[in-house]
Amino acid sequence: MSTDLATETARTAPQARTGMSRRTIGNVVLGVVLLTVPLWLPLVGGYTDLASRVLIYALAAMGLNLLLGFTGGLSFGHAAYFGLGAYGVGLMLKYETHSLFLALGVGTLVGGLAATLLGPIAVRRRGIYFSMITIAIGQMFYFIAIRWNTLTGGYDGLSGFARPKFAGPGHLLSMGPTGMYYLVLAAFAIAALLLWIVLNAPLGHAFVAIRENHKRLTFLGVSTQRYIAISFAISGFIAALAGGLNALLDGFASPNLLNYSMSGDFLIIAVLGGMRNFYGPLAGAVIFVLVRDYVSSVTDNWMSVIGLVFVVSVIFFPMGVLGFFNRKSGS
Amino acid sequence: MTNQSALIDRRSILKAGAAAGIAGLLATPEPTWAASEKPIKIGMVDPITSIFAAMGHSEIKGAKFAEEEINKKGGIMSRPLQLIVEDGAGNPGTSIDKAKRLVAREKIDFLMGTVNSASSLALSQFANQHNMLFLCTGGHVDALTGTNCNWNTFRTCSTTWMLTAGDFETLFDKFGKSWYFITTDYAFGHAEQADYEKQLKRHGGTMAGSALAPVGTTDFSSYLIEVKAKKPKVLCLLLAGDDQVNCMKQIAQFGIDKEIAVAGALIELEQLQALPENARYGWWTAEWYWKQPNTPHLADFVKAYRAKYKGEYPSARSWFGYASTYAIKLAVERAKSLETMKVVRGMEGLVLPPEVALQPNAPMYRAADHQLMLSMFPGHVLKGAQYPDLFDVSSIIPGEKLALSPAAAGCKMTYPS
């Protein structure tokens, strides 16, 4: 499988250079589709909050994918940073402030800093040991949230905060589903742009090089641990931002947001959509959230359907849905 | 890289195992109504999975039974009633997700559920933000109709205070002063223990100790070893759902029920049914029981319910689902409207008629805190008994004798202007 991946990257890399105009068109189309969601989504039987949820999960999975798909580190603990972002926002709104951006900023900072500080511990090991450490760290936060009743509300979750109004220049805008969607979309666009810049900078090339041949970089004298830690930190910040937005969307933070099963969901989203692909997690999130939403109204065993979709996609398109289509159009 | 793909493959194998069970699980939604009338929709979020599943299923069965009965008798204001059920998994986050979908996609008129206290609190807040009536079927935490009461939230099941007040004095007089608590670590358990402690202090009892067990605990041995060492007079179990079942089994294995009186606030028929015969013991409070001599309409209800559900007996949970669905119907008919505020006013002071109440007293949704004044059924588990006759009700106490006044419960009801 690893040779398969190597040829895949080798083949798509030159395409990325020559296909600039195609990429621009793709981005514009995606932008228009996302900007007009509140107009067309109700027509096809959806609702705006569902689109917000898709973007939030996509954002978290894209953050995770910087580490997973581009740096080659399989983290099973990103829900912890997602959840910390959510609790950060919830606690700020409940006790400290009514400012949307201050709360979101603090939430992102809390989750991101946790990833920055704890990443270096995990990156000391590679492969399965790395994954085990990330699970352990993630579960630690989960149990803190479950047991620290006075601060986090324990199993009951953190409630009692509402989405504040948007303090625009000169006036307050109330944040209904549509307002919330555009906030999420703006955050998604900014984070995607930052990720894009990082991936095309020398830093991003270093990440990919580590993924492709970790040993060789070590021989060349590159401090790979430091680079993986940087990737871990950036992806943690993005997961925390997504978590904060999730708390705003729900007006509620649950300890389950920190659980490793949530990390598993993000991994499924990234792998399902295509972890070598920049927008793979977005495609994965669309599939995951829609299947969850529609199938769970029909049967309680919706996780089985997700599992089935996942197994089928791993067997038949190991590069994810977007990877599959890219390959088709390439050949 | 190789490590990673190996790990992903292993995950997919695990997932494959889960996926293997999928065939035949896709159920078709019910029901059908002959008229072309637009249905009145009640969204019900209740656990179908998780440790609360057994209770959730009973509430849903009760509600569906009521739905069928109401539609047979001409619906609500000659419109059909449609009950749409979603699985909240006994978890507040999931419950809110499901409620969100019910509001956005199904355009429900009313929301009801759920077995789990934490989910009920979360849904109450959610409904408040969406200006919707929420009728809590089975979450007992005091705060829901106490310090956190909302103008749009009503509750059919009892408060934890009513549960603990129902049997405290009996237990205290019968077994002794020193108590040990094993308590489930969420809103429901915290509230129950606080209520018992308050009464224990008032009567001059002592706390031998207490332990908080996380939801979903399967191994209680570390707590039980401490109980054996502390030798309290009463071991008070304040657990929920299957946790209580697991703990009672382990207590029987340790032989603690032979040395120490085991008691607690709430027992459910579902739990007793799930226990092996040697692990059925203790003094508890039930909130409704299928066997009440001389209660009108009860025998017919039990008979019809058993006919629909293959001989299964209705539990307190079934009755919560049944009574809650009827309460919404009655409130809508009283209000002659579906507008949230008018229906809220219709439900305030609503007295359940005997054919819905199915108990000797006439329970009413108290206007000041929206709490139903249902009766409590303290008693003890019968030794060596067979399902369904597992519990001996020692008395049926009217709810208003046990409940705190709305002021003492801390409810200050405010309405939107």
Structure overview:
Chain B: Residues 39-382 form the Leucine-binding protein domain. The complex is a heterodimer of chains A (331) and B (417). Chain A has a single domain, classed as ABC transporter involved in vitamin B12 uptake, BtuC. Helix content of chain A is 77%, strand content 1%. Chain A has helices at residues 2-18, 20-35, 37-40, 48-70, 78-96, 100-122, 127-147, 149-152, 177-200, 202-212, 214-219, 224-250, 260-273, 280-298, 302-316, 320-330; strands spanning 166-167, 172-173. Chain A has a two-stranded antiparallel ribbon. In chain A, helix 9 (177-200) packs across helix 10 (202-212) and helix 10 (202-212) packs across helix 12 (224-250). Chain B has 417 residues and is an alpha/beta fold. Chain B has two domains: 38-158 and 288-375, Rossmann fold (3-Layer(aba) Sandwich); 161-286, 3-Layer(aba) Sandwich (Rossmann fold), CATH 3.40.50. In chain B, the strands form two sheets. A seven-stranded mixed β-sheet of chain B has the order 7-6-8-9-10-11-12, with helices on both faces. A five-stranded parallel β-sheet of chain B has the order 2-1-3-4-5, with helices on both faces. In chain B, helix 4 links the parallel strand 3 (110-113) and strand 4. In chain B, helix 3 runs parallel beside helix 4 (117-129). Residues 1-7 and 22-31 of chain B have low confidence and may be disordered. The chains are: A mainly alpha (331), B alpha/beta (417). Chains A and B meet through helix 7, helix 13, helix 14 and helix 15 of A and helix 1, helix 3 and helix 4 of B.
